[in-house]
Amino acid sequence: MSDFPGLSFRFTHAITRTPSDSVAKGLRAVDTGNPDGAAFRSEHEAYVKSLQGAGIDVTVLPALEAYPDSCFVEDPAFCLPQGAIVLRPGAKSREGEAEEIRSALEDTFDVVVDLPEGGYVDGGDILTLDDEILIGLSARTDRQGAEHFQAILTAWGYSARVCETPEGVLHFKTACSTLGDGVILATQPMADSGFFAGRKLVVVPDGEEYAANVIRVNDVVLVPEGYPKTEAAIQAAGFKTVLVPTHEARKVDGGLSCLSLRFALDASNS
Ligand code: CIR
Predict the structure, then answer these.
(1) Alpha carbon 118 to chain centroid distance?
(2) In CATH, what number does 13-263 get?
(3) What pTM value is reported for the model?
(4) Which of 47, 87, 170, 259 maximizes ligand 1 atoms within 8 Å of its Cβ, making it the mutation to test the pocket?
(5) Contact, 7 vs 178, CB < 8 A?
(6) CB atoms within 10 A of CB 46
């Protein structure tokens, strides 16, 4: 088993993209009203500030009106210290986002590779831990795509495991996150899945399932505003929290992780 202490939360850089007005047409499982572009941009600014406050350099790419979901930059790409992988998002309306993010990746990394032809992978289905990378099969990530992706990770020296995302969950990371230091935050169904056997788990309290998607960035955990029981559970596990508003993102099934690509650059890239 590979082990890269801190791989899951020690970051130097992030890439984000400003939400467009067209985000009002973003994909969603249940309609609770359209997000407002201006309100989303103001929440996005708070998000970028939180990342900067956690000690990382943030690149903010311009809004793309042609792609309503394009502020969720986690889905069309995946980054590791030694390189980036351009993915193939599993929703038709999002496929073009992969080409749109390529130049930002090429500006940042010496190595940028494409997911080989055949199959789909959304970055929201990839959970990076220090000792392995989990790839969740979902409505957006299929087995062929997952196996192509797994082969790249293996060639780069990582252990990677393909898992089944529980039924009715958009992305694997919709229902779990790493808090770092070997601790996983997960909804009860995800905790019961067995994927995290042998690891320390913090279970998201009933009714706060949306808050399963948090991000540990260096010494703090960014937590969505409005989920006090989850925040308290994370603090009780010994982590420092920072609250971030995600009210607009939530209307289109977006969470904290989806809004950035986070990575630690190798000395050779920086
Ligand atoms: C979508 O359905 O693709 C967007 N409305 C939300 C994407 C959220 N991304 C993520 O969880 N990684």
Answers:
(1) 22
(2) 3.75.10.10
(3) 0.97
(4) 170
(5) no
(6) 13
